[in-house]
Design goal:
two-stranded antiparallel sheet, 61 residues, mainly beta
């Protein structure tokens, strides 16, 4: 993905009070952990570890 790209992942249930970890896989380098967030409900979750700038939006289910 590059700046401005988005990816809609439908039909993936995300249970409240679970931890969502975002990982970046980039060959041939090691995978990078971009952060972990406890899901507290619908909303935007920012992942900024390792100089990342990703937003994961959780919709009402």
């Amino acid at each position: 993905m590059v700046t401005g790209d988005s990816k809609d992942i439908k039909d993936v249930p995300v249970t409240q009070d679970r931890v969502l970890t975002l990982m970046e896989g980039d060959e041939p380098d090691d995978d990078d952990n971009l952060g972990a967030k406890r899901i507290t409900g619908a909303g935007d979750y920012q992942f900024t570890d390792d100089d990342a700038r990703y937003t994961v939006t959780i919709a009402n289910q």
